[in-house]
Predict the structure.
Amino acid sequence: MSVDGSWAVKLNSPMGAQDAVLTLKT
C-alpha cells in the first residue's frame, strides 16, 4: 500500500480514518 497526499487527507476525516484502518487490516 502506498502512502501519498490523499492518504493523509483521509486520516484527517472521521470516515476516512475508519476507511484507512480497514485498508490496513486487509
About this structure: The helical segments are 5-11, 14-25. The mean pLDDT is 67.
